[in-house]
Write a structure and sequence with these properties.
Order of helices and strands: EEEEEEEHHHHEE
Number of helices: 4
Number of strands: 9
Radius of gyration: 22 Å
Distance between the termini: 69 Å
Largest sheet: 7 strands, parallel
């Protein structure tokens, strides 16, 4: 990529997908009006440190490269609403995730994530989260606070079997299971049995678990008997 690109100071969108790029010149930092930068399907192993000067950047796509880390001050790109880092080898995205409060779409699939950071709940506007094939086994309690989340991809992860069963039922089921598990419910797997019985989670699960917890009962619930939408215990 020629350094002369720095002359395009009013450029707002730049598409460099699939160009076998191995590096980006620091001159790209002069494109201060840039709002969207597409770098998918290249051979980048690093991003230039000066990329953080692109403070008007709203969408950054760097999927399917060879990135192993992000620039130290990457969190200065606080206008980002779409961030695609899938298919790289970035081991962690936890240290500065709370700074990206405007994110609506986050793509981390195929990375070496392993653990979703607790601070994920600070992404209040997040609508879509793609974290398939990352090595995740569980989700943090803070996940239930992603109120605007509509799309979640968790496929091809070694998930806790109960989480996976909830995942198959949908986003609301996952959030309710995580909340029940973290409220100290000793029989959280019962939640999955409720899901599989196709009883409404909203009307059954919480009262059921509350009654089990309050009475400290250890006898199993007989799922064949219901009264007014609640299990008889």
């Amino acid at each position: 990529l020629p350094d002369a690109i720095s002359n395009l100071t009013q450029l707002q969108q730049l598409n460099l997908n699939d160009n076998q790029l191995t590096t980006l010149p620091d001159a790209i930092s002069n494109l201060t009006q840039l709002q969207q930068l597409n770098l998918n399907d290249n051979q980048l192993t690093t991003l230039p440190k000066l990329i953080v000067r692109l403070t008007n950047l709203e969408r950054l796509f760097v999927s399917r490269n060879g990135l192993t880390a992000l620039p130290e001050d990457f969190s200065q790109l606080q206008q980002l609403t779409w961030l695609a880092l899938g298919g790289n080898m970035i081991p962690s995205f936890s240290s500065s995730i709370e700074k990206f409060t405007k994110l609506t779409h986050l793509f981390l699939w195929g990375s070496k994530l392993y653990v979703l950071p607790e601070k994920i709940f600070l992404l209040k506007d997040l609508e879509a989260l793609y974290i398939s094939k990352t090595g995740l086994t569980d989700l943090p309690l803070s996940f239930i606070h992603l109120k605007k989340l509509k799309t979640l991809s968790l496929d091809n992860n070694p998930l806790n079997p109960d989480i996976y069963a909830a995942y198959e039922q949908g986003l609301d089921a996952i959030k309710q299971f995580i909340q029940a598990k973290n409220e100290g419910v000793s029989r959280a797997p019962l939640f999955i049995r409720f899901l599989k019985s196709r009883v409404s989670c909203e009307t059954v699960i919480h009262p059921c678990f509350k009654r089990l917890k309050d009475s400290e009962r250890t006898t199993p619930i007989h799922f064949a008997h219901f009264r007014a939408g609640y299990p008889v215990v």
